[in-house]
Amino acid sequence: MNVDVYGYDRNADLPLGYIEQYRGAQPQKGFNFLPKQALDVNIQEIRRAVRLNNQNHIEYISFKVPSRTGAFNAELYPEFPANEPTVTADEWIKGNKYVPKMMRL
Fold first, then answer.
1. Longest dimension (CA), the chain
2. How far apart are alpha carbons 46 and 39 in whole angstroms?
3. pLDDT score at 1
4. pLDDT, average across residues 7-36
5. Are 45 and 63 in contact (CB under 8 A)?
6. What percent of the chain lies above the pLDDT cut of 70?
């Protein structure tokens, strides 16, 4: 199983750039990315995944961006929708428009 990770920068001449690749030695039964709150920002981790291989072992896979300084880089972690509701279920059923609450790491 191979997973290639690319970064997107709309201001760059070539907006899509290669970051990292993961190559698994065995086939898998399942693969899923964890929510952004599970990232370790101290090591420039941009995605974390959980993989279930054919021998029923769970593996955690970390995708990181190379860093010269090792310091926190806020540009790697843009705002994303928070895990708390913005409207109630009744408001949503009525079709009210809303802007989701956002959070940063």
1. 51
2. 7
3. 66
4. 83
5. yes
6. 99
**DSSP readout, 57-95?**
-EEEEEEE---SS-S--GGGS--EE-SS-SS-HHHHHTT
Q: H/E/C letters for each residue in 3-16? A: EEEEEECCCCCCCE
Tokens of 64: 């990181």
Select from 47, 44, 14, 12 the least CA-distant residue to 31.
47
The residue to which tokens 């101290």 are assigned: 42
CA angle in degrees (0–180, nearest 5) for 22-71-60: 30
Q: Amino acid letter at 51?
A: R
In the chain, domain spans: 2-103
Which uninterrupted H or E stretch holds 20? strand 16-23
14-34 in b/e burial notation, b at 16+ Cβ within 10 A? Answer: eeeeeebebeeeeeeeebeee
Flag whether pLDDT at 58 surpasses 90. yes
